[in-house]
Here is the input.
Amino acid sequence: MRIGCPKEIKSQEFRVGLIPATVKAYVDRGHQVWMETGAGIGAGISDDLYEQAGARICTTAREVWESCEMIVKVKEPLPAEYDSMRSGQIIYTYFHFAADERLTLACMEKQISAIAYETVQEKDGSLPLLKPMSEVAGRMAPLMGAFYLGKIFGGRGLLPTGLPGVAPANVLIIGGGTVGSNAAKVAAGLGARVTLLDINLDTLEHLGNIMPANVCPIYADAYTLDKGLREADIVIGAVLVTGARAPKVVRREQLGIMKPGSVIVDVAIDQGGCVETSRPTTHGDPVYLVDGVVHYCVANMPGAYARSSTFALNNRTGKYGLRIADMGVEACLKEPALMNGLNVHRGWITFRPVAEAFGRAESYRPAEEAIARQ
Here is the structure.
């Protein structure tokens, strides 16, 4: 199979879909890999390293898109790339369809097979391709919150670590999954007082056993959420419903009970955000104020640490990508995890939460049925 990796065009996105080791794994299996020139520069990977691994270097993205049967990316295709997608092409990347109806419709119209990293799910419920970027974003979240607490950005002017005789920041984390638990570790390491809310008692018990003493896992309900918002200097939204739009757990009116100059870091923004006042921002223009509360809602947070993120992602995606390259979309029939990852196929939505997000029940077909119809 011809596998292509174009350069990412999203604003301030420096990650790349393939690293040389993954390229070599594809080539050793008998596949061809076509890389757009400069695709890896943002992650510190030169064209020479890709060539040494066996890749062909293409001068334009168009050459990659037109020549390859499978496209490997990091972020979803942007509108400028919609016309590059070809019928029957497999695109393997983060899509986050439930937050973007225009993208969903474009992929349906182009008759591609969209295998979304974020919904590849193993039998034990784990999300192996979402996990590495959730770890990065979770660890970044307290750092970004700490930075934008600075008065020059509209924050409270509070140093989260505290000082002799001065209390540290209060950090509220909503959601105890991969993002939330990683955020809690870093926030605790800064010396903050951390409250971690979740509705799963088993998760809370586990977190209580492994977290530092300055992390307090608490059951999430309306009372504990309001209390946490009143006390928080930094709020980290880490709510996930696999493949679906994130629920709005913090409403506009609740900003009124928060401290002026406090900071919200909405890590769920890729899936629409878990705060009602959240809207996607970029690394170039990351924050805005609503009712005196700073909002940081960068939709590709891990892109800031492109090298670490790229290698962490490839450590996970390569294994599944090889199966797709070997068997095509039929790999989904043999690999349940990949079946969960198939969101759109040949004009059908094949992941139910995406169809539900847009009220398009008539466009939904189970993945097995959609593949059988091709």
